[in-house]
Amino acid sequence: MGIVFSPLGLVLVFTAAITPQWREGHARLTVSGTGSFLRAGAKGQRTGGRSGSAEVLLLRSDGLWESCMQVEHSDLRQCWPVTGPYQRDPCVRLAQGLVLTSLFLCGIGIVLACIGVRCWMDLPLRGVAASGGVLVVIAGLLSLSALGVYTHNLKRLGTDPSQRISNPKLPQLSLHPAGSLYFGWLGSCLQVVGGTALLFCFKQPRCPTCPSRPEQTVCPACRSCPEITSKTDMDVYEVSC
User: Fold this and answer.
1) pLDDT digits (tens, 9 = 90+) for 80-139
2) For the chain, which residues make up each domain, given as ranges?
3) Potential cystine with 1: which of 65, 122, 163, 197 (Cβ 3.0-4.6 Å)?
């Protein structure tokens, strides 16, 4: 289970990290003039009589490294790298660092788990596989921390209350969590579950004891006990990480 859930969680967290939909909001904007660029691309808009004004709905979405703006019911969409106060926000920078560290640790943990499980061999390297599980669990906790910090400060990111100017003419965005956050939450939980499953590799399997020397624990792979090696029907145990 761990060797399946861990890569799946890594893919989901990576998808969440590169998509610009950690938060999204919408604002209604009244545009004047018949030759407006926004009015030309918007559909289903309400148009005034003499002034030729139109009300369009702007959809704004932000990610960790990219932001996008789109006019509703149109193909007008523009994306750009995050800049300004949002980029310099300490919570955004913290989330970026935690997610990058999480991706790196999870990748290393999956490599160690694959080496430790060694499906092509009779016996796994339990310590190596379990060490990979530790890294995957830490990666999941780091990504959960990044998501928690971002979600807790979602509506305040990129804003400075001390310098904010109240202007009723400016469109006000109604921000709420977007799809990338849910991908991140799901991927982080899968990382924690997968890493925890790999941690059980630390537990050694029960091996039969040698009848002539009960104090000595003998593994079926070890052929040091004559009573065990002479058995024609040898018990075979399966290791599942």
Assistant:
1) 888 888 888 899 999 999 999 999 999 999 999 888 887 666 676 888 888 999 999 999
2) 2-28+54-160+170-202, 207-241
3) 197
Q: Which of 27, 14, 141 is nearest to 65 (CA)?
A: 14
Q: How far is CA 225 from CA 121, 158, 206, in A?
A: 22, 69, 16
- Distance from chain centroid for Cα 9: 7
Phi–psi pair at 96, nearest 5 degrees: -60, -45
Q: Tell me the pLDDT band of 168, cut-offs 50, 70 and 90.
A: very low
Comparing 3-12, 19-28, 133-142, 232-241, which segment has the lowest mean pLDDT? 232-241
Architecture of domain 2-28+54-160+170-202: Up-down Bundle (1.20)
Burial (0-12, 13-18, 19+ Cβ within 10 Å), 165: exposed
